[in-house]
Amino acid sequence: MADTVRRKLAAVSFLADSRRRIGANFSVVLDTTRKTLAAVAVRANGERRIRAAISVSVDSVRKVAMRASLLADAETVIFRAETFSRL
Question: Whole-structure pTM over 0.85, yes or no?
Answer without folding.
Answer: no
